[in-house]
Structures are given as C-alpha cells and as structure tokens.
Amino acid sequence: MASVDVVPTDEALAIVVARARRIPDRYRTFTESRESARRLHRMPDELLDRLLALGFPHGTDGTEPTFYTNDLRNACEELGLPSPQRSAIMLMGAALEAGARETVVRRTVDLHARCPAPGHDGDCGFTLAPSLASNNRVTRFTPMSAAHCRLTVELPGGRVSQFTGAHRELLAELDDVHFARLPHALADDPGFLRDAKLADCQSGARFLVERAASYGVSARMAFGILLTQPFSNTHAWAELDVGGEWLVADPLSLAVLARWGVLDPAAWPPCRSPHGSHWKLGEGVEALVRHGGRPAPVSLITRHG
C-alpha cells in the first residue's frame, strides 16, 4: 500500500476537494476503481476515504466508488504523493535546470509508436508528423522500424531571460490561476478559466495569447515536446515577442514547480523564460504519429547525446 511521509491536514484535503468540485461532473467519466487509485496513482485507502468524506467527486460501479483519472492525478500531485505524475513533475524541474545550465542542449529521443487498434486486418501503417521529420532542431533522423525512429535534437540553452514591463503584466493575469489537469473540452474554454481559476498548460497558454493584444504584446501558441529524461512529454505554452525574438512563456508550470518545492521560486519566478527545454513543433496541437488517420499512442525515451 502506498504511504505518505507527511499526513495531509483536513484543510489541505478540503482545498483539493474544493478545486475538484469546480469542474462540472458532466465532463467526467468515472472509470478508475479504488484498486487502481491505490495501485496506479499511489493513493492510500485511508487518504481516499478522507477525501470521499469531504465530497471528493466519484461515481459507483454498484458496490464501490469509482473515480475520474484527472481528479486522482490532481489530488496526488497537490498532496505530494509518490505518484507517477509527481515523478514527471520532478523530471520537468530537472529539464528546466539543465536548459539553464547547458549552452547547447543535445538529446536523443527514441519515438516508439503503438497500434491504436490492435487486431485489425493487414499490417500497421504509421505516419510521422511532418513537424518532427523536418524540424530545424533535429540534427539527425534515423528510421529504426515502421513504429520506431530516433531523433537527435539540439536546443540553445545556457541563458537567463525574464519578461518585464507589459510582458510581465500580461503573465501576472495568471497569478491567481491554479494548474490542474482538465477534461479536453475545457482546455478551449476561456470562460471556465476565468470563472474557476483553473487551467492546464494548453488553456493557460491560449488565455495569454488571447489577452496579449490588450497589453500591446505579440503572442502566439506553441506546441511541442518538453525534453525530460528518461521520458519526454508533449506540452503547450505561449511565446511572446520581445524585440523580435520569440521567447517561451510558461508561467503556470513555473509557478507550480516553485510551489511544490521542485524549483527555487527566487530563481524561477513565473516571469522567467525557460531556455533549452521546450522543443517547439508548431503552433497547434497535433498527433506525433498517425495510424490509418487515427492518432497513435507514443513513448518518447530520451537521453543525453
């Protein structure tokens, strides 16, 4: 059974429940059992019972409560449980630090695609997103098999940049917005962000882009890969034009990493622009690999060199 080093207070649990309740139930699908909450998300039974007593969202399979995956992920991250999501957050902090430290960030990414519909007739046909194969940050591209390719990526790093003036005022609009993993339907709903004060990486970035003109700032969306090791992840962020240079703006990520003690908040304020960690593929979210027109699940195994 999973355990926690520090037992969360009732107040901390109530905050987690209150934030979860800001998301309407109509966007939830309750598919996680108590067993999967314990085994996959490292949520101890006694802690889950305390959350349920405070009104944590749940359904039922007839005998036992069932849960929404993102609710469990958000709760585990907020409470500091040793969950896979918490580990990913720690790795993100390490990637940002490496980007600030290394003048040239060179990573090798092995992309493995999986069939989204096993058991179909005929052979699998995988198509790589053009933005990967022809990306100007890819210095070497090696096809390994139909479902596996290897890419060497180089990003410029070793810089410290901070937004000032109107750019910083724009980013401050997210100061009272809390990061949370949201249903896909809410990622494109700016009204939800304003009312609930919750956002994921995509909705937070979209909000900044929509508000930028009010500050006289040029902004655009960015979608790509955050180069964390040993597994990279897709990510979305905003880019702001500063004197003709487009800089990464990712204030929600920096704020949550600082709040959870992963990064030093004095060195990594939300107005800082990360370098050497955010590999941009385009401005819109896209599938990295398709299989017969459908997005294919992928893993991005990442290492130095």
UniProtKB/TrEMBL annotation:
Residues 193-253 form the Transglutaminase-like domain. It comes from the Bacteria. InterPro entries: Papain-like_cys_pep_sf (IPR038765), Transglutaminase-like (IPR002931). This is Transglutaminase domain-containing protein. The lineage of its organism: Bacteria, Bacillati, Actinomycetota, Actinomycetes, Micromonosporales.
